[in-house]
Specification:
β4, α3 and β5 form a beta-alpha-beta unit. The relative contact order is 0.16. This protein folds into 2 domains: 125 residues, Rossmann fold; 122 residues, Rossmann fold. The protein is elongated. α3 packs parallel to α4. The C terminus is likely disordered. It contains 11 helices and 11 strands.
């Protein structure tokens, strides 16, 4: 598989602190990463009551690896000891981050790593009278809270980080688009995709949406379609390794995954 990308340049839109692994994987397979972060992740400061509610809840539900990393910072570098609280993670990466921090994970989706996948798990079906705290970024998706509330749970949020649109030098991206030296785009969240659309203006946007786009969920695919992207592939998993595998297949002209 060495040199399987044959010098292709791939746009990596992950936040600065989360881009290195994917960039390294691309380089090892003979590709080039063009870093253009479309999200900046920074800490938020929840109220003391929210922290107390989190440690006293029946369920603590982490929606992302960022939620874990910034929760650790909120708790002064170490997660508190929980005696009766159960822990849920929305996906494998989130569960791994929790376990690395010394926390057990009581519930994680079996296959579909999303809010819908987590809500399908048996442990989260009978919640009448239970207290659930969702650990997330400011202004995250409401699906979890809506369904948990409908199941009889009392739901609160612990918002430990916020997402911003970063200020990024677009010179390299502009040059690559204008000279047809960009071969694919990777996006791992809806907000990152929306920011990318704003940060790249016409006529460059027309060039951008004509490129192959690799995303990590069907929800992102749907939004990308609405924005005008025409060549979209959903990776099998939301991991860097799966993104690389999808890119390799895509850029070598093979038909794999979901293409539109």
């Amino acid at each position: 598989m060495i040199n399987s990308l044959h010098g292709a340049t791939v746009l990596v839109t992950r936040p600065v602190a989360q881009a290195q692994n994917l960039c390294d994987l691309l380089a090892r397979q003979g590709g080039k990463a063009l870093r253009f972060p479309t999200l900046e992740i920074c800490a938020s400061s929840p109220e003391p009551q929210a922290l107390q509610a989190a440690t006293a809840s029946d369920w603590l539900i982490f929606t992302s690896r960022n939620a874990v990393d910034f929760a650790i910072k909120v708790f002064n570098g170490k997660m508190p000891v929980l005696n009766t609280t159960q822990i849920a993670a929305v996906g494998e990466a989130t569960a791994s981050a929790l376990q690395a921090a010394g926390w057990r994970v009581d519930c994680v989706p079996a296959s579909e790593f999303s809010s819908e996948g987590l809500l399908a798990e048996p442990q989260l079906q009978m919640l009448a009278g239970s207290s659930c705290v969702i650990v997330r970024g400011v202004g995250g998706r409401e699906k979890l809270a809506e369904v948990l509330t409908a199941r009889g749970a009392k739901v609160a949020y612990l918002e430990v980080y916020k997402r911003l649109q970063p200020k990024v030098d677009s010179t390299e991206l502009t040059d690559s688009l204008c000279t047809n030296q960009l071969h694919a785009v990777t996006v791992t969240s809806i907000e990152a995709l929306q920011n990318l659309s704003v940060m790249v203006t016409e006529p460059l946007r027309t060039l951008l949406i004509s490129l192959p786009l690799v995303v990590v969920s069907d929800r992102i695919r749907q939004v990308a379609e609405q924005m005008g992207f025409t060549h979209i592939t959903v990776s099998k998993k939301p991991t860097d390794a799966a993104i690389l595998e999808t890119l390799t297949t895509l850029l070598n002209g093979e038909n794999s995954g979901r293409n539109n």
